[in-house]
Amino acid sequence: MDFTDKVVLITGACSGIGAATALYLAKLSAKLALVGQNEKNLLETVAMCEKEKGFKPLAIVADITKEADVERLIKETLDHFKQLDVLVNNCGISKSGGIKTTTLEAYDIVMNTNVRGTFYLTSLAVPHLIKTKGNIVTVSSVSSSKSVPNITVYTMSKAALDQFTRNLAVELGPDGVRANCVNPGLVATNLLTRMGFNDDQYNAYFEQMVKDTPLGRLTEPNDVAALISFLASDLAKNITGATHSIDAGRYL
Asked: Considering the domain boundaries, does residue 1 fall inside one?
């Protein structure tokens, strides 16, 4: 895979899957626009990417739930690189709770980030992707098609992203633009910590997950980054509208 002269915009690039994808694509010579809310962590990702190939990514501190930020990040990317070839919709958030406990405030936070923000960003990116015959890769989840207790709104939001991707594929296919989803299982990132798990709970949960997984291993951020990069590359030129699970067989 080679991304020389390809401009890739990645949201949620401060840590986890987003940072791993940025580093993976930096090694493949991509020109990167990296978006995140935590400036310190974002600049750490930028520094790691620059170290790989000597090309410094564009860092954009932004919140995709804010329309003005979304408009600005697209403008900054186009002003800097003059084109856009790949959009990686990775930014996402989760809140614990089911129908008995989830507040409307928590619902809005999750849906505004995972669905509304992704929808608006993609809508602004599409005209530029049509010009380059580019593509969109959205990070969803295997929970989009599974009943997972205590994260009801999160699973709803990921199901919406799967359907969004299928619609994009049908609508944008005639324009030469592909759209696909990557659907990880539980990945060794800080998602659970942000949901309130302490260290003991975090470690116990992952240990049980490994025992219950056919391949007997966790999915690492770099595993997901490799799949995202493949789908964004010309090697996947005949793949669109697909959801690709990557969970070591956990949900079979």
From this structure: no
